[in-house]
Amino acid sequence: MHLRNWLSILYSFGSFFSSSQPQLINYNQSNSPLPFNTVRCIAIQDSVKWFGTDDGLARFDNENWQVYNSTNSPLSSNDIRALKVENDSIIWIGTISGGLYKFDGTIWANYTEFNSGLLDNLVRGIEIDQSNNIWCATTEGIALFDRTNWFNWTIASHGLLTNNITSIGIGQQNEKYIATINGGLDYFTPDNQLTIHSIVESGLPDNSALDIDIDANGKPWYATPAAGLVTDLGNGGPWDRFNLSNSPIPTNGLTCLAIDPIDQRIFMGTELYGIVIKKGDIWFNYSTDNIGLQDNYITALAHENNQIKWVGTYDHGVIRIEENTSGQSDNQLTGIQIYPTLLSAGESINIDTEDEINQVYLFNDLGSKISIDREPTNQIKLPTSLGSGNYILQISLSNSVVRKKIIVL
Asked: Is 9 helix (H, G, I), strand (E, B) or coil?
């Protein structure tokens, strides 16, 4: 069995009874008018679903499809990267090379670097704040459109650490959270005063984030490409993080994120492991192995309601997931404790679990495996030659894998 498939099985940490299996419908180029199988963004407007693909924009009302592209609409770029609905009639569209579009079902408007104050024709994030301003994430900085004038924030104008902006979130008090590639997080107060948070300045776990959502308590959550799931416990830290070292999450590389507004479950997309779901301290997984998901490479997530989710994939179009939450089993990982976690080379670590232990591995911070002895079954002894530092103890149980951090003095 390939390592990828084996890991996917190991990390199916949320399992479901057959009676509660989510029901899947897959729409792709072969069975629907969807124009392309890579779906980058999803927006839900009442009963209408909008899908942004690499080759056109699709509108689906649960029965009928309408595809918009450069041959039948004013769209000059078919590569759609951002969608934002406004009330029940307007959709805002961000493209790779055609700038920002506004469409009300009849009339199109296009804003580009040539006819407006938009700095860049690549728009990959759109949000509307409580003052009705349009915010755009571009590769040349942050853009704000107040319906009349444009305002921009860049490295040159406001000291941003990068102009490469990925996503925008609007907080409960009209504050703004801006994610970047290698430029940390840009925070705006309700009156748009800027503060920049980075690894150096505030201990941010990752200077890059690909997606943002805000929970019911007003906390921003970030999908990062290298540090897992991150949230801000204050205002620019302290930061809480969930990664391979301290949680059941199967990867530190997340692609997208969407919080269910009803039950506050956090849905996360990955490239290899499908959808990871965090419900408090309980973790679940929807993947090709456990629910028959058509693709484990997830590019977009959207909640139609508490039961129906829409999922964009890299190779297999869009998937409608209908959950049976009333029958879903909260199969939490078997409790496991290890102690001590702060010890010296040559000392032993006890593993306290009711589950069967199959294998135990020790890795250093570079990911290299270190030989260890198990004596007796639920105890391992560290080598006397082990140097000081942080290590990861990986424990393979009967139906899951647990990673725990230890510190060697």
From this structure: helix
Q: Cα(353)–Cα(335) distance, rounded to whole angstroms?
A: 6
User: Residue 406: enclosing H or E segment and its boundaries?
Assistant: strand 401-408
Q: Above 70 in pLDDT, residue 334?
A: no
Q: Per CATH, which fold does 336-408 belong to?
A: Immunoglobulin-like (2.60.40)
Distance CA 270, CA 252 (A): 9
- Please check whether the domain covering 3-322 is classified as CATH 2.130.10.10: yes
**What pLDDT digit, counting tens, does each position of 345-379 carry?**
999 998 887 778 888 889 887 778 898 888 777 88
> Which alpha helices (H) appear in 48-111, and where do they start and end?
none
Q: Which helix (H) or strand (E) holds 5?
A: helix 3-10
Structure tokens at 124: 């990959």
Task: Render 105-164 in DSSP notation, one character per residue.
Answer: SS-EEEE-TTTSS-S-S-EEEEEE-TT--EEEEETTEEEEE-SS-EEEE-HHHH--S-S-
Q: Cβ atoms within 10 A of the Cβ of 332, count?
A: 15
Buried residues in 282-296 as b, exposed as e (16+ CB within 10 A): ebbbbbebbbebbbb
State yes or no: cis peptide before 376, omega within 30 of 0: yes
Tokens at 142, concatenated? 């942050």
* Residues 6+ positions from 208 with CB-CB distance below 8 Å: 166, 179, 180, 181, 182, 183, 224, 225, 226
| CA–centroid distance for 167 within its chain | 11
Domain boundaries, the chain: 3-322, 336-408
3-state DSSP assignment of residue 18: helix
pLDDT at residue 325, as a whole number: 59
d(CA 331, CA 260): 19
Q: Are 272 and 289 within 8 A, CB to CB?
A: no
| Short-list 380, 65, 320, 304, CA closest to 312 | 320
Identity of the residue numbered 190: P
**What pLDDT does residue 399 have?**
67
On the CB side of 352, how many CA atoms lie within 13 Å of its CA? 5
Q: Give all strands of the β-sheet with 150-153 in edge-to-edge order.
A: 123-128, 134-138, 141-145, 150-153
**Mean pLDDT value across residues 167-193:** 98
pLDDT in tens, 70-101: 999 999 999 999 999 999 999 999 999 999 99
